Known about the structure:
Methane Monooxygenase Hydroxylase, Chain G, domain 1; Metal_Tscrpt_repr; DNA binding
Amino acid sequence: MSNESSQPDTCSAAGKLCMPPDSRKRASHRLKIARGHLDAIVRMLDDPEVYCVDVLRQIKAVQGALAGAGEVVLRGHLEAHVATAHQRGDSIELVEELMEALKYR
């Protein structure tokens, strides 16, 4: 695993905070796993003999993979951006942004 703290805090062109490369790679991997499970569910539903519990298990697997991807992105954000927000002077903005992103609807 790469040292995310050695990554720059901003994108060079936009001047915005960017996802650390290691987090991006790991989240992408987990989302590909979720897509594979989701594709399996769609194929299962084409089978008139599919067992409901098997479909539910696959749905749970998709939810787990999505949750795992979310955890990777959140950890990367906390380590790369929130931990350094005070130094940049944008801690209030980052907290508000994160609270909005994690709001349950």
